[in-house]
Amino acid sequence: MTTQTKEKPDTCEEIRHPIEKLLRMDRIPHIWCPGCGIGIVVNALGQAIADLQLDPKKIAIVSGIGCTGRVAGYVNLDSFHTTHGRAIPFATGLKLANPELTVIVVSGDGDLLAIGGNHFIHAARRNVDINVICVNNLIYGMTGGQVSPTTPVKGISSTTPYGSFEPPFNLPYLAMSSGAVYVTRYTALHVRRLKKSIRKSLSRKGFCFMEVVSPCPTVYSRRNRLGTGLDMMRYYHDNSIIKHGANPEEADISLGSKIIVGKFREVDKPTFTDMVESNLRHSVGKDEKAPKIDVSHSLNNKPRLKKKR
Ligand code: SF4
C-alpha cells in the first residue's frame, strides 16, 4: 500500500495570505507587538470586504494617530492617516464629496473618544453614512501609555500610576445615545462575529459603530499585570457574555468584570446625505430667486451650481 503525502510548497512565495490583495505587502512586517489585537481586526475587515466582493476603488479608509492609526497605512485601499482625533471629520468630508464611496474609519479609543470625542458624537447625531471601528485597548498605546476615556477605574496607566479614578465611557451606550443606527461590541477573540458585524455595517446605511475590545500586552496588560495577549484571549473567552439586544447602559467594562458583547442596536434613519439632499430640494427649490442647484451630484458624483438666467 502506498501513502500519498501532500506536497509542501518549495518557497514561501507559494504561500499567500488570503487577504493579501487588500494589504500593502511592501509595508510588511508591520509595527504591531506580538499578541496585539489590531491585526485581527484588519484581517476581519479584509475578509468582510472580500466576502462582499466590494470594489476596492470605491472604498476609502481613514484612521487617526496611534497604534490603530497605522491601519490605513497597511491596507491597500485609498487611505488617509489623519491628525489626532480628526478621522471622523475627514471621513465625513469624503462621504459628502463622494456619496458613492464606502467610507471606513478604524481608530483607537484615545483618538476617537478623547481628542476626537466631539466629532464622534456629532457624526453619530447627524447619522453620517460611515463605518466606524474602534479598537478599544483601554489605554493610549503608542503615544505614551496614558489614561484614555475607556480606561477602567483603578486601571494603571503612565498618568494614573495609582489607578484611574475617572469613570470611563461605555462606548455602545455613548454611540447609541448619540444616534448611531448600528452598534455592536465584540472582542478580538470573536473573529467570526466581528467579521459578520463588519459585513453588515458595510451593507447598510448610516453611522455604524463597532467596538472591538482588544489586548495591548505591551502597555495596558503589562502595567496592570494581566499577562500576555494569549492570557487576554483566555480572559475574553471566560468572561464574555453574548447578549444581542442588551441594554447598553448595563454594558460597562470594569477591571475584572464580565464583558457584554453582541449587537445592541440596528435601526434605519435618514442619513446626513439624505437630509442635505432633501433640505436643498425643499428650501432652495421653492425659492424662485435662489440659484438653481443641481443636486443630482449625490447620484452621479458631478457637483454643479447653475446660475439662473
Ligand atoms: Fe498593540 Fe499595545 Fe503594542 Fe500598540 S503598544 S501595537 S496597542 S500591543
Describe the structure.
- The chain is of the alpha/beta class and 309 residues long.
- It has a single domain (18-281), classed as Thiamin diphosphate (ThDP)-binding fold, Pyr/PP domains (Rossmann fold, 3-Layer(aba) Sandwich).
- Helices cover 34% and strands 17% of the residues.
- It has helices at 38-52, 71-74, 87-97, 109-115, 117-126, 171-178, 191-203, 217-223, 229-239, 272-286, 297-300; strands at residues 59-63, 78-81, 102-108, 131-136, 182-187, 208-213, 240-242, 259-266, 292-294, 304-306.
- The strands form 2 sheets. The chain has an 8-stranded mixed β-sheet with strand order 2-1-3-4-6-5-8-7, with helices on both faces. Strands 9-10 form a two-stranded antiparallel sheet.
- α2 (71-74) links the parallel β1 (59-63) and β2 (78-81).
- α1 crosses α7 (191-203), α4 (109-115) packs across α5 (117-126) and α5 crosses α6 (171-178).
- The chain is globular.
- The model is unreliable at 290-305 (pLDDT under 50).
- Iron/sulfur cluster binds at residues 32-33, 36, 38, 67, 137, 141-142, 216-219.
